[in-house]
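Possible regression after last week's pipeline update?

I re-ran a chain I had predicted before the update to compare outputs. Posting the input and the new output here so someone can diff against the archived version. Not blocking, just want to make sure nothing changed silently.
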Amino acid sequence: MSIALSRTPLRAVSRPFRWLVAGLAALSVAGHAFAAPVNVVAAENFYGDVATQIGGSHVAVTSILSNPDEDPHLFEASPKTARALQQAQVVIYNGADYDPWMAKLLSVSKQPSRVTIVVADLIGKKAGDNPHLWYDPATMPAAARAIAAELGRADPAHKAEYDANLDKFVASLKPIADKVAALRAKYKGVPVTATEPVFGYAAAAVGLDMRNQRFQLATMNNTEPTPSDVAAFENDLRKKQVRVLIYNGQTEDPTTKRMRKIAHDSGVPTVSVTETEPRGKTFQQWQLGQFDALGRALATTK
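New output (post-update):
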């Protein structure tokens, strides 16, 4: 008995085979589209905002310090913070002893694959320097470049998108740079004072003559300023030897409240700045708004 072997025509198998290939490709695309985002934890919400602007839908960002109504110097880490860091692929924090609790948490939460960006290291700052680095115009471009690079390493499939968003972010800082340049051209050398050195780098960029810096350092370090430093500060306000008083809107003690009252009574304009990005604003909007407020205050006194 002979058995006839039949050969199914190639055309007959090619269609379902094409369907199978197409189906597998679709599953692959769908799996790629719904890939888990890169987990990013930022100690401060302005660094988290930059990570969001660069990463877009491909990142899940948790910002630890995010309440503009709270004093960031009083922050205490919680188990929730530790859990977020345990799952993070990229961690960003300020450094320069501004957020020392981050280094402590990271040291007890080892993750070999986790990448940490310390912003102070990017711009050559260390403990003892003014830690309010985000007010230095050089800081955010450097931080953004580091964030884009690490997101590209963690998620190579979207590297081109991260790079494009980086370019867009850096370009979006130009209005701030233009505002700083305009203020510097008009007010360079003008004397101002502040209750804390929060706005110090920004004031230096404008070229303002910042007075009473020993008082500011004492306030920042939660120590009592000397009687002579207090007297010099009050004298500057009462005699209007400064054009503007800049104060930290998130932290106040009886001494700084008194300085604000003296400024008000003496007709010295005041400008509130914060250490935390306000809700509903981007980093760019926040910074530009504060420079606008400074410009208005400087324009009201001669």
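Follow-up from reviewer: compared with the archived run. The first helix runs from residue 10 to 33. Marking as no regression found.
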